[in-house]
C-alpha cells in the first residue's frame, strides 16, 4: 500500500525490458522473438483501421466502426501513419481484443476545439476529467509499435500550459479493462492526465511520456508539468489522516529511466507551498515515491 505517489519531472521515460507476452489473446506465444523486429505485415483475418491520411479528415468514425465490427476475438491493426482523432471516442464491450497500435493518434491542436468536444462528449468521466479515449472490456491488449515514431498519442498540450488554460482539459484515455496489457505506448505533449487505469489486472510495459517543455527555462516557470497526487484546483492538500490517500496493491515499479535537462523547473506549482512539497526534502525534486516503509520493498 502506498500513501502517495508524486512524479514531477519534465521528461519521464519509463523503459522496461522487453519481455514475453503477458497473456495471449491471439494464438501467438510470447517468446524472445517478440523483442526482435518483425515484418509487421497484416495477417489474414485482422481488422485494419484505415486512415484518410489527411489531417483535415477526422478518422474517429472509421476507428469506431472498426472496433464495433471487431469487438470480440479479434486483432485490430493500425497502420504506420497518423490518424486524426478529432472526436472523443468510446471503445466499449471489447472482449479478447488485441490492438496492434502501429500508427499515431493526433488530437486537435486547437485548444478551443478540444474544449468544445470534451464539453459535449458522452465518454464516461473520471474523477478529474473526461477522457478523450474511453476503453472498456476484458482481455484487451494495446501493443504500440516498437518504432519510436509510432505508437504515439499527440496531445499538443504544451500550449495549454503556456496560456495557463485549465478549463475543460481532457484526460487522454481511460483503460477500464479486466485483464489488460498496454505496451510501447508513447504519450507526446499531453494536455494533462495521461492513462487512467480503473480496471483490474493490468500490466503496463515500456510506457513513454514526453512532457518536456520545449522552451521553458528555470527563470520562466511557464512550463510543462507531469504530476500525480492531488488537484490544487480543488483546494489545499487534503489531510492524510489515515495514511491511505492513495491505495495501491500488488504494484511493481521496474527499470524506471528518466532524463532531465539542466536547470529543470516545474511550472505545476499554483499553490504555495507547491503541491509536491515534502517537508525535509531538498528542492527541487524530480521524482517522489512516497511509500509506506513497512509494506514496500526496494531492489
Ligand atoms: C504525424 O504527426 C506528427 C505530429 O504532427 C508529425 O510530427 C509527424 O511527422 C506525422 N507523421 C506522418 C507520417 O505524417
Ligand atoms: C460547455 O457546456 C456548457 C453547458 O452546455 C456551456 O454553457 C458552455 O458554454 C460550454 N463551454 C464550452 C467552452 O464549450
Ligand atoms: C468500468 O466498467 C464497468 C463495467 O465493466 C463499470 O461498471 C464501471 O463504472 C467503469 N468504471 C469507470 C471508472 O469507468
Ligand atoms: C514558449 O512559447 C510560447 C508560445 O510561443 C510562449 O507563450 C511562452 O512564453 C514561451 N516560453 C518561454 C519560456 O519562452
Ligand atoms: C479514516 O478511517 C476511519 C476509520 O476507518 C474512517 O471512519 C474515516 O472515514 C477515514 N478517513 C478518511 C479521510 O479516509
Ligand atoms: C542554470 O541556472 C544557474 C542559476 O540561475 C545559472 O547560473 C546557470 O547559467 C544556468 N545554466 C544553464 C545551462 O542555463
UniProtKB/TrEMBL annotation:
UniProt feature coiled coil, ranges: none
Signal sequence annotation: 1-28
Entry's Gene Ontology cellular component terms: extracellular region
Catalytic activity reported: [(1->4)-alpha-D-galacturonosyl](n) + H2O = alpha-D-galacturonate + [(1->4)-alpha-D-galacturonosyl](n-1)
E.C. designation(s): 3.2.1.67
GO molecular function, one term: galacturan 1,4-alpha-galacturonidase activity
Annotated region described as Disordered, given as residue ranges: 213-246
Keyword Amino-acid biosynthesis recorded: no
Keywords: Disulfide bond, Repeat, Secreted, Signal
Location(s), subcellular: Secreted
Class of this enzyme: hydrolase
InterPro entries: Pectin_lyas_fold, Pectin_lyase_fold/virulence
PANTHER family, A to Z: EXOPOLYGALACTURONASE C-RELATED, PTHR31736
Function: Specific in hydrolyzing the terminal glycosidic bond of polygalacturonic acid and oligogalacturonates.
Name of the protein in its database record: galacturonan 1,4-alpha-galacturonidase
Species, as recorded: Candolleomyces aberdarensis
Amino acid at each position: 500500500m502506498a500513501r502517495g505517489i508524486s512524479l514531477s519531472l519534465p521528461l519521464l521515460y519509463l523503459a522496461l525490458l522487453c519481455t514475453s507476452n503477458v497473456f495471449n489473446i491471439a494464438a501467438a506465444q510470447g517468446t524472445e522473438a517478440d523483442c526482435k523486429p518483425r515484418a509487421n505485415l497484416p495477417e489474414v483475418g485482422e481488422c485494419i483501421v484505415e486512415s484518410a491520411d489527411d489531417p483535415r479528415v477526422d478518422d474517429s468514425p472509421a476507428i469506431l466502426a472498426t472496433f464495433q465490427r471487431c469487438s470480440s476475438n479479434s486483432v485490430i491493426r493500425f497502420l504506420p501513419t497518423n490518424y486524426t482523432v478529432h472526436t472523443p471516442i468510446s471503445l466499449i464491450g471489447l472482449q479478447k481484443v488485441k490492438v496492434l497500435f502501429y500508427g499515431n493518434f493526433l488530437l486537435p491542436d486547437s485548444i478551443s476545439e478540444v474544449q468544445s468536444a470534451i464539453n459535449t462528449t458522452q465518454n464516461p468521466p473520471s474523477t478529474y476529467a473526461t477522457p478523450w479515449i474511453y476503453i472498456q472490456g476484458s482481455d484487451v491488449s494495446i501493443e504500440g509499435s516498437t518504432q519510436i515514431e509510432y505508437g504515439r498519442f499527440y496531445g499538443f498540450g504544451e500550449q495549454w500550459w503556456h496560456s495557463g488554460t485549465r478549463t475543460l482539459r481532457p484526460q487522454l484515455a481511460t483503460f477500464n479493462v479486466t485483464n489488460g496489457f498496454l505496451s510501447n505506448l508513447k504519450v507526446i505533449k499531453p494536455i494533462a492526465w495521461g492513462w487512467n487505469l480503473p480496471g483490474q489486472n493490468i500490466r503496463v510495459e515500456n510506457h513513454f511520456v514526453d512532457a518536456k517543455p520545449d522552451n521553458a527555462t528555470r527563470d520562466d516557470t511557464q512550463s510543462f508539468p507531469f504530476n500525480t497526487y492531488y488537484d490544487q484546483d480543488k483546494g489545499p492538500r487534503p489531510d492524510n489522516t489515515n495514511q491511505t490517500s492513495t491505495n495501491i496493491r500488488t504494484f511493481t515499479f521496474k527499470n524506471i529511466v528518466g532524463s532531465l535537462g539542466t536547470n529543470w523547473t516545474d511550472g505545476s506549482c499554483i499553490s504555495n507551498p507547491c503541491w509536491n512539497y515534502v517537508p525535509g526534502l531538498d528542492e527541487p525534486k524530480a521524482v517522489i515515491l512516497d511509500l509506506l516503509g513497512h509494506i514496500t520493498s526496494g531492489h
